[in-house]
Amino acid sequence: MKIENKAWKSKKLWLAAVLTVVSVSILIKLGFWQLDRGEQKSAYELALQEREKVSAIALSDFIEMSEFTEKPSSLLGEDYLTQSKPLKHFEQLQALNGTRVKVEIEGDTGDVFLLDNQIHEGRVGYLIFMIGQLRGAEGGHSILLDLGFVQASRDRTVLPNLSDLSVPSNLSGRLYIKSTNPLSHELSAENTLPVRVQNLNIAELEGLFEVNLFPMVFQPIGLKNWGYEPVWVPLPMSSSKHFGYAVQWFVMAAVLALIMLMISYRFWIKNHRIDSVESRK
Predict the structure, then answer these.
(1) Best label site of 155, 169, 196, 217, fewest CB within 10 Å?
(2) What is the Cα–Cα distance from 218 to 132, expressed in whole angstroms?
């Protein structure tokens, strides 16, 4: 009976050891994945810092340098709408985030809408967007202007009262493209004034406002006497957080391995003592 019990405990120990090895391997793999993501983000952050030092160029020069030969919104491709697989064009455009450009728009106002569910410095609110028609652009192309953050009311039926949103016709700022939500990418425009949307879906915005949009958003810099706070968060997660998560995964792997070693050692010591007592009998 003792032999059978000992054999059963030994099998359980081996099973626990196998599960531990698998778990530790997964945790280590996750740690290296976070390290890799951290290194990618670190390189991206350095690129953003370098772009901050570069003087702004004309949007037309940027378009020529970037070889935007297609209709602007078509650069995002059908995958931008379906979110069925990684986006080649989307990733190429996202790699250009932070590029400083100068734009010229017709007039000083345009159609305005609000991007819902935005958080800035612990406050819930909206990002204000205006559609500005590019001056001299073929076919009347337009661009989304990110005009900043406005705090939301506790009552969702009450939208913020936007003051004068007139902007200069000559603007300097940065380009960016927002990360997409894989679970929800539809515009979900509401019949409000101004229009409230849930996501920046370029193709659906083109249909809603009947315009041809440039595929990147333009955020003006240095607007004088402007009552709305600019929000510049090019990365949803910084490289330091990825490195921090990597350390956590590695620590968890080390702790799990250490616990298994301690259990195995205690099991070996106990069996060794039992074998010593039985050999004396």
Answers:
(1) 155
(2) 10
Would the pTM of this model clear 0.85, i.e. be above it? no
d(CA 49, CA 271) in angstroms, rounded, equals: 62
How many CB atoms are closer than 10 A to CB 209? 15
pLDDT digits (tens, 9 = 90+) for 220-275: 998 888 889 999 887 777 888 899 999 999 999 999 989 888 887 776 676 656 55
Other Cβ atoms closer than 10 A to 253? 20
Among 101, 112, 105, 113, smallest CA distance to 132 is for 105
| Average confidence score pLDDT of the chain | 81
In the chain, DSSP assigns E strands to 57-58, 100-104, 112-120, 123-133, 141-151, 170-176, 195-197, 212-220
3-state secondary structure of 251: helix
Helix H or strand E segment including 225: none
Q: Is residue 221 within 8 Å of residue 230, measured between CB atoms?
A: yes
Helix (H) or strand (E) holding 178: none
Which residues share a beta bridge with 197?
Answer: 115
Q: Which two tokens stand for residue 252?
A: 């968890």
Residues 174 and 164: beta-carbon distance below 8 Å:
no
